[in-house]
Amino acid sequence: MALLVLAMVTAAAVISKEACSVHGDIGTASFYNPPYIPTKCDGNREEQFPPGNLFVAVSEGLWDNGAACGRRYRLRCLSGPKRPCKHRTIDVKVVDFCPASPCPSTILLSRDAHRHGRKINIEYIQ
């Protein structure tokens, strides 16, 4: 019986450790250029853009038939050309659907949110 309890505790510890290492979904991010309005979320309303202009357009997988409008995501840069991941995380707001078909990335960042100009690998969580 003690052996069974020890095995269960060990298994729970391993599962708990694995669960802690997973933070969010993995995808890619690149940038898109102005003009940013009109958007698919709030048209021509300037007040849709958050302070600092840290906003994004999302691809079909995140768009959710427009339900993504206003969602906030925390993005973490994982890797990219020329080591762009100096700032680890950024919080952004969804204001638009990806204007390109097919979308070149999971998430397209405004110029203020992504200054490197290259596609990067990201982890994101709502």
Automatic annotation (TrEMBL):
Sorted UniProt keywords: Signal
Pfam families attached to this UniProt entry: DPBB_1 (PF03330)
Record's signal peptide: 1-16
CDD domains tied to this protein: DPBB_EG45-like (cd22269)
Keyword Signal part of the UniProt annotation: yes
Source superkingdom: Eukaryota
Coiled coil: none
Residue ranges occupied by any Expansin-like EG45 domain in the UniProt entry: 27-103
Protein name (record): Plant natriuretic peptide A
Organism, as annotated: Hibiscus trionum (Flower of an hour)
Highest classification ranks of the organism: Eukaryota, Viridiplantae, Streptophyta, Embryophyta, Tracheophyta
